[in-house]
Amino acid sequence: MPPRPAVLTKRTLDKDLDKITHVEDVAKHVLRRLVAPGLGLIFVGLTMLFAGVYVFDRPGATLVVAAAALAGYMAMNIGANDVTNNVGAAVGARAMTMGQALVIAAIFEVLGATIAGGEVVKTISSNIVDAVEVPEAILGWIMMAALMAAALWINLATWMNAPVSTTHAIVGAVIGAGISAVGTEPVNWRVMIEITSSWITSPLIGGLIAAGLLYLVKTLIIYRDDKIAAARRWVPVLVATMAGGFMAYMVLQLSPPGRFPPLTVILIGIGIGLVSWLAARPLVLAQARDLENRNSSLRALFRLPLIGSAALLSFAHGANDVSNAVGPLSAVVHSAGIGGDGGVGHPPLWVMLIGALGISVGLLLFGPRLIRLVGEEITKLNPMRAYCVALSTAFTVIVASWLGLPVSTTHIAVGAVFGVGFFREWYTRRSKRRIAYIRRKADSWELDEPEEPNIHERRRRYLVRRSHFMTIIAAWIITVPVSGALAAMIYWVMFALFV
């Protein structure tokens, strides 16, 4: 029997089509991952064009445009890393979706940066390294090196899922570049001591306020026989406190210094609080109708306050952390003689817009990566706990912005999350009110916990993950020296190549 001839053509195109389809799917997957970096690169290019419109006919235009590009890149990294502070708790508590959280954060970041960000920008741009004692030509390169070093470190930290402090990064970078350029003389060590002390105290304050708020919520609402009636009474009060405190801050921020005496500001805050209470009361009453007397029902009643506190925190973050991006840019602009009549440290509006828009672009493109860590993985958050975290962080950051202190919103927010978690551990074991409540609800209650077999089982039952605590603390500790050393090296390279 003669051999059958070899078949040189395929009888069907199915296999080839499957391969082509698979290749197309892979290409789409790869391109999807490149969309965010590509849009970020487009934003940096638009930032350069935006800055060029204002400075193209000035002698130092090239340096300012380059600094604007670095400031835009830095602002995007701030938005990517620090967005967890604003909405991580709300997303972790499932009070809003990721998309809703990002949109709210983006809008209020811009408002906070443009309305209330000027005072902290002044500290970063001219108070850490004395701008008067440093030659203007050198000051511009110091700030350029600081921007690049801080942005690179924050970018690396975001990629590693580490919520580091962008404030630590830029302050460390300014000091490192300044010392490498002109030595230690122009460094204002008094201001540095004030900033460093605020870094230590602000997370503790945030944690204590969050724990105190949670204690009030548990005492006044959660461990009451009629939870819904208690919530109808106290949730409007919480909303009024939040609105009144924020309005008092806005009056202080937007009015000329000394325009209103402290008593007037307090009365304005109380007045706005009363109006907010009257507005929130019917909304809460309508939401509470037909709800069962259960803890899960309280989540619906705390959704509105939690969204409000997340928006307030985004405003506070924009007011404080925009300085990390545009503070150095402001110094470069004034060193080039383009700052106008505001003096050193007073940024032009277009400089503030670069920082505000950059933070919003960064959080929209890259923000979801760290939201889950702070919102879900440190300790379990429901809307009540998340509200305590967001409100305590917002008030702490607002007070710091009013005082001109560039505090770390990351430190405060994470400190508040840990404060809530550690308080829950203590309260679960020690609260007499909780024990009495559980006794009333259960047929029997055993006060003495059964003996646990080993320490590993005990640690597994903790409400706060200690591994995240140690990782985050380690990232905080190394941020200042790493960013400072990197800025010093970048300054030497820039000086060798361009100066």
TrEMBL record:
**What does the entry give for GO biological process?**
phosphate ion transmembrane transport
Pfam families in the record: PHO4
Name where it mostly resides: membrane
**GO CC terms for this protein?**
membrane
| Annotated TM spans | 34-55, 61-80, 101-118, 138-157, 164-184, 204-223, 235-254, 260-280, 300-319, 349-366, 386-405, 411-427, 469-494
The domain of life for this entry's organism is: Bacteria
Q: Which GO terms describe its molecular function?
A: phosphate transmembrane transporter activity
Give coiled-coil spans as residue ranges: none
In which compartments does the protein localize? Membrane
Keywords of this protein's UniProt record, alphabetized? Membrane, Phosphate transport, Transmembrane, Transmembrane helix, Transport
Q: Would the keyword Membrane turn up in this protein's UniProt record?
A: yes
Classify the protein's membrane topology as the record does: Multi-pass membrane protein
Tell me the protein family, please: Belongs to the inorganic phosphate transporter (PiT) (TC 2.A.20) family.
Q: What is this protein called?
A: Phosphate transporter
Phylogenetic lineage? Bacteria, Pseudomonadati, Pseudomonadota, Alphaproteobacteria, Hyphomicrobiales
